[in-house]
Amino acid sequence: MSYLNKNYLNVKGYIWLLFVVLSILFISVPQIDMFVANLFYDGKSFPLNKTPLEGFFYYSVKPLVVGFSILTIIIYLYNKITKKQILNINAKALLYILLTLGIAPGLVVNTTLKENWGRARPAQIKEFGGTKKFTPAFVISNQDGYSFSSGHTAAAFSLIGFALLFRKYKFLMPLILIYATCVSIARMGAGGHFLSDVVTSFFIVWIFTHIFYKLIFKEDS
Predict the structure, then answer these.
(1) What is residue 132's three-state secondary structure?
(2) I need a labelling partner for 140 at 20 to 30 A (CA). Which of 27, 74, 116, 211 fits?
(3) 12 DSSP β-pair partners
(4) Rg, the chain, Cα only
(5) Which residue segment(s) compose the domain that 131 sits in?
(6) Phi/psi of residue 71, nearest 5 degrees
(7) CA dihedral 49, 19, 180, 77 (to 10 degrees)
(8) Nearest in space to 101 (alpha carbons), one of 55, 168, 56, 162
(9) Contacts by 36-41, CB closer than 8 A, 24 or more apart
């Protein structure tokens, strides 16, 4: 079983395996999505929707991602002009952050999946008071929905890139993982996404983030 702990494109073997297994499970047993969504449904609506707690996690993602990005660019420019190395933000670090934030959550999740898969959100399907039909994860639908996969989850987990970049601050990774998980739960609780939506976004971001790290810095993260 040692092969599960080996790195493949800078991603542990067990991560690849878990992603494949869970993807197959969500496709073959779609009732998992329905069961989890039903945990947040009170028979009439999704009570967490539009609450202050849900709103905090919904609206905090973009400012955090944009704020960290702008701060990175500012530090890079300052280092470039003054010939200093604050937080070691150089051209490679800047490129890494731009790729991490742009490719996985931007190009893969939002542009490719959300815009083309058409999966209806939990709150939109008949079982939860809507008018649309439930479709399993990874199955392209004509429901004109934007459920698969979760853009907010992908954006929140993309902050992992900063945790890898500033690895000496060991508190960053668990803090970001907890925050992004809360964002994911909030999106499910509001009826905006199924479990498979947020899980898929997590794996996509995790895998791309680590692959880019290896490609740019030529070392394992």
Answers:
(1) strand
(2) 211
(3) 7
(4) 19
(5) 2-217
(6) -60, -40
(7) -130
(8) 162
(9) 36/188, 36/194, 36/195, 37/122, 37/128, 37/188, 37/191, 37/194, 37/195, 38/127, 38/128, 40/122, 40/188, 40/189, 40/190, 40/191, 41/122, 41/128, 41/191
> How many whole angstroms from its chain centre is CA 92?
23
Residues (pLDDT < 70) of the chain are: none
| Model pLDDT, residue 139 | 94
pLDDT at 73: 95
Query: For 142-167, what is the HEC assignment?
Result: CCCCCCCCCHHHHHHHCCHHHHHHCC
What is the DSSP code (8-state) at residue 55?
H
- Which residue bears the tokens 């993807």? 23
Both tokens assigned to 51 = 């609450």
Q: How many residues does the chain have?
A: 221
Residue type (1 letter), 111: T
pLDDT digits (tens, 9 = 90+) for 92-108: 999 999 999 999 999 99
Tally of structural domains, the chain:
1
